[in-house]
Amino acid sequence: MLQYLRVENLGLMQKAVLEFDSGFTTVTGETGAGKSVLLGALQLLSGARADKSLIRQNSDTLSVEAGLYFENSDTVNKRLVELNLPICEEGSLILSRTFSQTKMPKIQINGNLTTLANLQKMGEIWIDFHGPGEPQKLFHQKWQLSLLDLYSKTYNLLDNYIPLYRDWKIQLKKIDEIKNSDQLTLDEADYIRSQLDLFEQIDLSTEAIEKLENKFNRLNKSQEIIQISSLIMKSISDDDGITAQLGTILNFSRELSQLDHETVSLSDRVESLIIEIEDLASEYNLVTNESEFSEEDTADLTKQMELWLELKRKFGGDINLILEKQKKLAEKLNDQSNIEETLLRLKVDVEKLESQLFEIAENIRVKRISSAKSLSTKVLKLVNKLGFKNAKFEIDVVRESELKECGNSTCNYQFASNFGQKLMPLNKIASSGEIARVMLALKAVLADVDDTPVLVFDEVDANIGGEIAGIVGEKLSELGKRHQVFCVTHQPQVAARGDNHLVVTKIQKKNDVAISINSIHKNPHNRKIEIARMLGDRSSSSALNHAEELLVN
Fold first, then answer.
1. Is residue 369 part of a domain?
2. 424-425: strand order across its sheet
3. Residues 380, 394: Cα–Cα separation, whole Å
4. 3-state secondary structure string, 438-485?
5. In angstroms, rounded to a whole number, what is the distance separating the alpha carbons of residues 469 and 65?
6. Is 365 exposed, middle or buried (0-12, 13-18, 19+ CB in 10 A)?
7. Are 281 and 274 in contact (CB under 8 A)?
8. Do 199 and 310 sit in the same domain of this protein?
């Protein structure tokens, strides 16, 4: 509940500190006395847009501050945490707002500087205005649906539905992101596979490539190599070749070693030369054999070399560059495979979630349809009592074309004040008095489920009087048992029903005009005088007697 309000230099009000009690508070005063100042202060603290033009004339600073108390501050604290603001201490919420002629505006919540947007988000929780030009939550479809859901007790279903819905949306977003990513077309994937096939047809190790190049080089020069190798072997192995000559030398060296033992080592060296020369002959013979290629070997070697040259031409002359390209192509193809697998898995998950969501959403819709009939019947009954005897009020539950966070249905509150008129959405109703009383009827029926603590009504009693005014006062009084209700009224039948009563007075000074707000509900005499004034004459005995009767009732 709102515990206190401090106002300084707002419009015609110089300074006021007001303390409030729970229940139903009426605000009265002469026409033009400045009752709107109180509403204006509350609007500023709920986040209404404004500027320094509201500052009292000849003053530098306008400030408004309010203190609220919540027995259970869980909802408020949750919002404060979301906004990175200090939570309520012992259930207290302190709001303040200042405008200056020379400085930047300042907003504070629980002592911390904050933004207008945050003040508005807090205002959504603690106060609801009903009157001309006021932002009314019930005009918005989401709030209409929220109240219908409170009445129909679908929140258990919604608690199950909403997390599934958000998960479903995340999965759909993932699918879109994957589809819009750099996916390969079928042709691109086939091309990459064909390139990878090329890599698979050849051993790309450094040793293998070096051996391939050497072997191909030998193939190209095989005839010349064979010819030269043959000449070398002939020079070594022919009858007059090196081997034969060394054999003669070996015989002489052995004869010499018989004569001179010190030359034995020389004989051994000659013998070693013969062995080495014979080994050389074998090696050159191997060179000759390796340089002799069959047609099949020639074709295979040529194919391998052509493939290697193609890879070098396409992907770079360095083997490391080629291997890196092979790795990237393989990864790209693997990613594509993973994408297809991921998409398939996500689609299965999405279909499963959709099935669950549709089932829950349909249950919610059925409950909404049933509750809409009950709620609209109760509201219409009260609207009839409030002066619209031929009015119509309906809550139309509409099936949505697709799943939304609210389910597969939403609703429209529709009203027609007179017989023969077409039902229209609430925000299309022209008369502020009609709007205010429809809102009162809704608030009265939904009092047990609407958890907005502070309700403000302005012009709820416009163009009514007598018995209907009494009913309006009665319903506002009933609302005051579950909410803290403020009502600016010109009707004595409404004012007399207030648990608390504030009177706004305009004071004409010599060179200035000021506004004062005084509490009179604890002074029966002053309150009777005010009710009599509202009846037409504060000095009339009949008006005073009538005022006393209204206050007793």
1. no
2. 392-404, 407-416, 424-425
3. 8
4. HHHHHHHHCCCCCCCCEEEEECCCCCCCHHHHHHHHHHHHHHCCCCEE
5. 33
6. buried
7. no
8. yes
Q: Residues 270, 271, 276, 279: what is their CA dihedral angle, to the nearest 10 degrees?
A: 150
What gap in Å lies between CA 85 and CA 238, rounded to an integer? 106
pLDDT in tens, 289-334: 766 666 676 677 778 877 878 887 777 777 778 777 777 777 666 6
Task: State how far the Cα of 268 lies from the Cα of 270, in Å rounded to an integer.
Answer: 5
Residue 411 identity (one-letter amino acid): C
Closest CA to 101 of 146, 49, 53, 141: 53
DSSP, collapsed to helix, strand or coil, labels residue 102 as: coil
- Specify the pLDDT at position 430: 55
Interatomic CA distance for residues 495 and 527, integer angstroms: 9
Give residue 337's pLDDT.
64
DSSP 130-179: ESTT---GGGSHHHHHHHHHHHHT-HHHHHHHHHHHHHHHHHHHHHHHHH
List for the chain the helix, strand, coil content (%; round to 5). 55, 20, 25
Under 8 Å between Cβ of 35 and 28: yes
pTM: 0.66
Q: Which two tokens stand for residue 81?
A: 């945490």
| pLDDT-based confidence at residue 486 (cuts at 50, 70, 90) | very high
User: Residue 65 — φ and ψ, nearest 5°?
Assistant: -145, 140
String of b and e for 312-336 (b: at least 16 CB within 10 Å)? eeebeeebeebbebbeebeebbeeb
Does residue 227 sit within a domain? yes
Tens-digit pLDDT profile for residues 182-235: 666 667 767 777 777 777 777 777 787 788 777 777 766 666 776 777 788 778
Range of the domain at 102: 1-129+499-512
Percentage with pLDDT > 70 across the chain? 92
Asked whether residue 446 is domain-assigned, the answer is no
Rounded CA separation 116/110 (Å):
14
Q: Given 304, 337, 370, which residue is the final one in a domain?
A: 337
112 and 210 share a domain?
A: no
Cα–Cα distances (Å) from 32 to 463, 469, 505, 552, in that order, read: 18, 21, 9, 29
Q: What are phi and psi of 61, to 5 degrees?
A: -135, 135
How do strand 106-109 and strand 92-100 relate by DSSP bridges? Answer: antiparallel
Contact between residue 68 and residue 95 where contact means Cβ atoms under 8 Å apart:
yes
